[in-house]
TrEMBL record, chains A, B:
Region (Disordered): 575-601
GO-annotated biological processes: transmembrane transport
Keywords associated with the record: Membrane, Transmembrane, Transmembrane helix
Protein name per its UniProtKB record: Sulfate permease
GO-annotated cellular components: membrane
Amino acid sequence: MNGLKRYFPIAQWLPHYGRDVLTSDLLAALIVTVMLIPQSLAYALLAGLPSQVGLYASIAPLLIYAVFGTSRTLSVGPVAVVSLMTAASAGQVASQGTPAYLSAVLVLTLLSGLMLLLMGIARLGLVANFLSHPVISGFITASALLIAASQLGHLLGIAASGHNLLELMHSMGTHLSNTHWPTMIVGLSTLAFLYGARRWLKSGLIKVGVAARPADLLAKAAPIVAVVGTTGLTWALGLDQWGLAVVGNIPASLPPLTLPSADLSLWRELFVGALLIGIVGFVESVSVGQTLAAKRRQRIDPNQELIGLGASNLAASFTGGMPVTGGFSRSVVNFDAGAETPAAGAFTAIGIALVSLTLTPLIAYLPIATLAATIIVALLSLVDIGAIRRTWAYSHGDFFAMLVTILVTLFFGVESGILAGVGLSLILHLYRTSHPHAALVGRVPGTEHFRNVERRRVETDPHLKILRIDESLYFANSRYLEDTVLALVADSPQLQHLILACQAVNLIDTSALDSLEAINARLGDAGVQLHLSEVKGPVMDRLQKTEFRHSLSGEIFLSTFDAWQALHRQSPIQMSIPSDEAPPASVRHSSKPGTPQGDNV
Amino acid sequence: MNGLKRYFPIAQWLPHYGRDVLTSDLLAALIVTVMLIPQSLAYALLAGLPSQVGLYASIAPLLIYAVFGTSRTLSVGPVAVVSLMTAASAGQVASQGTPAYLSAVLVLTLLSGLMLLLMGIARLGLVANFLSHPVISGFITASALLIAASQLGHLLGIAASGHNLLELMHSMGTHLSNTHWPTMIVGLSTLAFLYGARRWLKSGLIKVGVAARPADLLAKAAPIVAVVGTTGLTWALGLDQWGLAVVGNIPASLPPLTLPSADLSLWRELFVGALLIGIVGFVESVSVGQTLAAKRRQRIDPNQELIGLGASNLAASFTGGMPVTGGFSRSVVNFDAGAETPAAGAFTAIGIALVSLTLTPLIAYLPIATLAATIIVALLSLVDIGAIRRTWAYSHGDFFAMLVTILVTLFFGVESGILAGVGLSLILHLYRTSHPHAALVGRVPGTEHFRNVERRRVETDPHLKILRIDESLYFANSRYLEDTVLALVADSPQLQHLILACQAVNLIDTSALDSLEAINARLGDAGVQLHLSEVKGPVMDRLQKTEFRHSLSGEIFLSTFDAWQALHRQSPIQMSIPSDEAPPASVRHSSKPGTPQGDNV
């Protein structure tokens, strides 16, 4: 792919853009625009920002993503988890509602955009791989619960704030006696309506004869009905005069041009928050993008996605917006509605811009409680109890990482949660690879093959031991290797040659090289020669340049059989006594599901 | 080993303690005591503490380590790097010289003791493995440079302070015009004397006929000569009246009983610092202990060492001390001087206690500049330029981790340095394993073996591909696996069966299981059956319980040959065209050093 098409994916589809595609994209854009209006307002509220910021963040970023993004159907804009993280980060340097808070959000957006852009240029798309699935899943479930809790106050008309569950619950408890009844009635009935529509509307419509696709779209339009209904009711009955909180007057305008603060101390304070917002947003976006792309046998390029999302966030920071990424629900709607190219996103941006210019007076009477109910119901799909159950069944270690992520997120906040989850996944992986499997092997009689002495009857030699190591050697297991080898030598008084069979060693890092040098020296003291066999090409290339290569007391053999032939003394051959006889090769057969299987190596 | 002997290693050697061993231990204790006096005072100075704290920390901890430690020759007490880290951590909550600072140091000591003890009980000795050698080596080199820089002020008689090189240099530059000439003369001449003695005294003595061992001990006594000489000179000439900073009056007493503060907010502020002090101290101690133990074919138990060092630090925190660990230079001297059991350490403790009670009036005239010169020369052995060069030659990645550790330590301080190093080692490891090697394999004609199609002429079948994966599957590479498999399928229009050969897969974590499920589903859409072969026992046990086991479109075969026999159609066999013909088995031979070797798998 040439440079232009790689960095400007728009060049791949725009030249072939035809009339059919235009129709599909326009229809999808219309549907997504209608859905996005309440969502954008709600996520701005969640991030502690004036409602119009959500609209502004759904204009320029979509246009920019259409130029730089590689997903055909991803819809970019404010999303729930990132909005919550924005509130948590910006809340650490300023109070919601102050100009300093707005300024902090713009800096967060700018920084996370810059970081994503730089990561994209450095081709670091693989950072998305460093978040394990249990950690992502746990983090999203916990965030959804935290967001739902943060919206309960709006639903009851009381002031409740906090960055973790304890703070929120405590704050809510303090204010519970001030519950505002009109707000509660609007909030809870909207919640009941939205939940009911989500649960039963589609199947109900199908039952009365509506086709599946329109039934699905109608069910998804329920939030619009709730918004229009409660806004109209508030206007007609003057509920805002009774103290029902509403969105209020929004200036009817296009997004303003804004210049994020260049205060470096503010940048430093928001650095970690911006990094986490960028990475979490990127991971969510890539997951959604890959899932949708695979359905149409398309592909997305994670590195170019970093550039696309980075540029989108830069655009948001200069147009009075907030951090954006590819959202799950909006992208699925876009895909289902038939979007075929990023032009659908650009048309959506134009739709939102028209709304910002013309319809904002109508939004003034929209109750905050309605938005809170919309958020809470939208979050239900993110709480994945099944994933928790499956993870527990498959791996207690992974479940533990997930559980810690959930608990830390709920009780210490989103930043601590994601950091704890990532840290724990890494430690778990190190722990798992820090005790590599190593087996003494012997020769299968009459062949060039060597198998575990505990599993097969194989030829062995008390002067010559062959240790097969089943893991790459690196810092987390290099000391364990030393211990294993030295214990083996201590137990083998007749030993003269030790061969490390390295067919499963894909890497030897500097720490492991130090350990091999130490092993070589200590075996030398004990009068045992150290040999290597089956060293892979790339590993061998590195070893050639080292002092170890020259100080090695023995040789490096191409195959273990070469080593056996060269070093095996013509003493009477001993046979190993396997702890558990393996079946002979002639009766080995393909397995049936449910048949327990042994390690056949 | 029974519980008593395991948790109280003293029970292993005390019952057999004889007269010969007593003589050896007493002699070693005498030599170490003489060496430790200036060292303990100097490290207290380095940690920003009154000199006597260094002496106190060399009494109770040694007695306790003799009971709980597993190394026969490790000498526990204040060490340079840990003292520097103590100054950095305690300096964040209080100013040097205030009672709050002393109190912070006691809490740091208590916390790191508690953490080590808990880690020991939880058998977490393997945490030492998570610090890679390049990171440790880079950290120690950078710390040594930082410590040397921090002592330059004392050498010139000017006030210079700071927690990183920039702060130190800036502070020194500001005060350079105030250089105190008498201090500078004493400081620089002591430095020249100590450096000269270290460099030439031993070889000089051997040249004039002194035997090697006494020559070595005499050379190591140079610091004592410097201390006695400059102290005498200061007293005789009254240099302290000229403004030469001296240690001053130290109360002649045994260590006081102290109760560390129970202020939980202070504990929280010092938490990370205490953890890093504990782990870095533990790593240094275990490295020294293992090196010395191996020389005498003894072993140490890292988990029990955690308990021993934890208890020693607890003892230090209750007796007016500072964080302690097993030091490199003091342990080597103890070993060389012939110590045979931890009783030598206990005798050293008694020696230091006697000094604290009786000799402190003599120490009053000891110039601070002498201690600074002692520290600087002692650090020279820690700067390991050779390790930096070797690491660069062997692995640019490891060198990069080392370089970042050095730079961050120098310019952002010790805590940031060690955290950056550890983080980078982990990321580097994830990066290295995130692109696992995977090879298409075919059957070696007439055998049950399968080899890389690009390296051998092997039988292949366009309807059946066998992909061998050379790495455990986990979160960092699960997405890469998806990409690899889907790209393979996209390029193979005739494909009906894909077999993943898993002999090198030691682990499949939850993220990788999700990826296998996704691969299975997408291959199903494309009409390709997914099979596994050679799945290892423990991996198979886990898979049995999963939904994947039942949704898998194909089968799990015990061996790749079984899979080939079951799925290979009797169409004309195709032979692969290797990119580079491997030598036939008959001419394979053992390698000579210097012969380039290919990947023979």
